[in-house]
Automatic annotation (TrEMBL):
Keywords for the protein's UniProt record, in alphabetical order: Transferase
Record flagged with keyword Transferase: yes
Organism lineage: Bacteria, Bacillati, Actinomycetota, Actinomycetes, Mycobacteriales
InterPro entries: CoA-transferase_III_domain, CoA-Trfase_fam_III, CoA-Trfase_III_dom3_sf, CoA-Trfase_III_dom_1_sf
Protein source organism: Gordonia rhizosphera NBRC 16068
One Pfam assignment: CoA_transf_3
Protein name: Putative CoA-transferase
GO molecular function terms noted in the UniProt entry: CoA-transferase activity
Record has Lipid metabolism as a keyword: no
Domain of life: Bacteria
Length: 349
């Protein structure tokens, strides 16, 4: 075992709920010392459930500060002086009012990296910007669901999680640069960025994205969900080699070239749907995976966790999902989430 890749890095967090705490938990998993700065009442996510809080805050320490008074601001300055970065996710007005920007904190530490996670940008106002609101505002919801039904949302917080990871990347990039500075990451910009090829098609050719049945891909055919004789399956055919393997196993003749499959989308989908209706999702997965075809039967979360027990770790008596970043010769120390105001020892192994 070696020390974590972020051993020796100290990160302060003024975060609530999901995006900010998720970002800093990833850093803590990789060996950073993360100090969570909370009001006397604690991060509001403590009120959701213990399991919820642990899932976003394991491995951190907690310090209670009232940042609205001089004493709290003085203690913040002391913490900033010895830290590499501060990550905040609050409303822009609160970030500015509490002095949680590089402009205000550089007097304590010229090399401090200040990361602000907001809905629309650090200087874009305080419009409420929760995950689902952002998905509606950026076109994600409009692209999701059945084309004959209403727009819909995925069953998890995709905007918050994506923004947390993006903020962590920006934080580390600025630390590596050796310079302090302000990093501004918004949920709005992150989700538009993740609509990359849809946005590019519209901006360069005027092609507007459309919602397709079964979540079908805009370019690849067949690449979507399909019903089977029992259950549903995701099939993702991105090149002709995959198609040859699938078509041979499924008894489909023709459509050998990618361009032809795109041009004759409806015919291809009709043939694939008819073939997949002859067997169950589980059996199709067993038949196609050995051929190298990208395929998966739809599973519930409990089923997925049961199949991969190695992803489940324990942190302070709570079971949670391990860090997805696996580093050679290093295993994170999955310490519990802190009690309010609790400083924890940071292990480097």
């Amino acid at each position: 075992m070696t020390s974590g890749p972020l051993a020796g890095i100290r990160v302060l967090e003024v975060g609530t709920m999901l995006a900010g705490p998720y970002a800093t938990m990833m850093l803590a998993d990789l060996g950073a010392e993360v100090i969570k700065i909370e009001p006397e009442t604690g991060d509001i996510s403590r009120q959701v459930s213990d399991a919820y809080f642990v899932s976003l805050n394991r491995g951190k320490s907690s310090v209670c500060l009232d940042l609205t008074v001089a004493e709290g601001q003085a203690r913040l300055g002391e913490l900033v002086a010895d830290a590499h970065a501060l990550l905040v996710n609050l409303k822009p007005s609160a970030i500015h009012r509490l002095g949680l920007t590089y402009e205000k904190l550089r007097r304590f530490n010229e090399r401090i990296v200040c990361v602000a996670i907001t809905g629309y940008g650090l200087y874009a106002g305080d419009d409420p910007a929760f995950d689902y609101v952002i998905q509606a505002a950026t076109g994600v919801a409009a692209l999701t669901g059945d084309p004959d039904g209403p727009p819909t949302l995925p069953g998890y917080s995709s905007a918050d999680n994506s923004t947390g990871l993006t903020a962590a990347l920006g934080l580390l990039a600025q630390i590596v640069s050796g310079r302090g500075g302000q990093i501004d990451v918004s949920l709005h910009d992150v989700m538009l960025s993740q609509l990359n090829y849809h946005a590019s098609a519209y901006l360069n050719t005027g092609t507007e994205p459309v919602r397709r049945a079964w979540g079908a891909h805009s370019y690849y055919v067949p690449a979507q969900m399909f019903p089977t004789a029992d259950g549903h399956i995701a099939l993702f055919i991105t090149h002709d080699g995959f198609w040859r393997s699938f078509a041979t196993e499924a008894g489909i003749d023709g459509f050998w070239r990618m361009a032809e499959r795109a041009e004759r989308r409806d015919e291809v989908l009709a043939a694939v749907t008819a073939a997949l209706a002859t067997d169950s999702a589980d059996h199709w997965e067993k038949r196609l995976k050995p051929l190298g075809v990208p395929v998966a039967a739809v599973r519930s979360l409990p089923e997925a966790l049961a199949e991969t027990p190695e992803v489940v770790v324990e942190a302070g008596g709570f079971r949670t999902v391990r860090c997805p970043i696996r580093v050679s010769d290093f295993e994170p120390d999955y310490r519990p989430a802190p009690a309010l105001g609790e400083m924890q020892h940071t292990s480097t192994s």
